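Re: the 59-residue chain
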Amino acid sequence: MSRSPCPSDSTRTAAVVNKEIRDLWQRSGGRLSPDGEERYQRLLVEWAAVTGGSSRPAA
């Protein structure tokens, strides 16, 4: 079952997604598990969609 980072009918702000990315890295201690890596990739896609891919989040 694929988990969606957010419901399809709502859009989170770049700041909210970026905070989640930062929290993920902080909790992981800088080393992502396979599940963490999968979540990180989904968050990056969501973040890029919200920002138009104009810059990188600080992780």
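The helical segments are 14-28, 34-51.
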